[in-house]
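User: structure tokens for this one?
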Amino acid sequence: MMRGVLLWAWLVASAWGQTSIDLRTQSKSVDFSAASSSRPWKTGTALPAQCSVGDSFFKTDAPAGQNLYACTVTNVWTLLSGSGGGGGAGLPPMAGNANRLLSNNGTSADWRGVGVGLSVNATSLTIDTVTVPQKDTTNSWTQANTFQALLSASGAGAVVDFAGAAATRPIQAGLSSMTPGSCIATQEMYIKTDAPAGQQLFLCNALGTGFQLLGIQHSTQTPSGDALSAGGTFATNYLIPAGTLAVGKTVEILAGGSSTTDGSGAQQFRFAMRLCTVSGCATGTVVEVPAIGDITVGANETNASWFLRVAASAQSSGAAGVLVGQGESSGKTGATTTASSVMGWGAGVTVDTTVNQYVQIRQINALSGDSSVLRQLVVRIH
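Assistant:
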């Protein structure tokens, strides 16, 4: 009997002295719902250097909602998703960032404003129609805008109205040397700002390989006193810009003047037209169109008027382009008589239409001492 009492006393004493238990092996189910407090995680301000998969840690100095970590790989801690007003897993604090969008810089997340053109509120993200043009509404442009792609207005109701504009520049403009080498065939235009007046507007050719002078372009010059003696040339030049003489284009020259002195006996006038790659025709390539036949003016006849008309059409273009045409001259041969002479160009002359060409009128006088003066020169290209 005494032995049984002593055994019971030892068992009670042993049970009373035990201060911790192994929940995994010494419990069947664990319920902390009625406990005054529970702390199932290790806590601290620094994550332990070592951990095993499944370990957890509560970091007490982290922002609210970003405190709980789990060991997902040996010795590697990962922030777990949390809840609450402060933020979530990896989220920056939400306080003071209302209506901002979540973004990141490649390392950490941050909140950013939506920028110009967008508007955000508590329920939606929308386009700010005050600053962003709309496809299906009327738009007003109040500042300078640069378009680097196609700007198109199409459809039955499309209207581009510049009536109230202070200025318009609808065509690309620049120096002749800056003329684009390719363009939209028969649609694109270019203004050469350094070309002579009346010769500045160009249209892309049918091949899209360059520009040609648009429409009927002309220049009228009245070089009063531009005199020449036997075998001389008038100094007046007219520029035909490179690429102007495309196939089908015609250059027409009208010139007029009068005789001034009569060297000896009857005066003779013979005219020719030059195309030169350099103004003045003193250098460069000079092509002289065959001369038109003589007009003989009576002896001692001064101030006898004469007239010249030459028309040449481009049969082909390029470095070896061909111009074909004819010319006619007429003049007063006496007090009451006139004469005329016509000259054809046969197979034509070879002219480089890819470079600038200068037109010059040449008068060839057969008799020494004869001279005349150029009163007017008109060149038209159409």
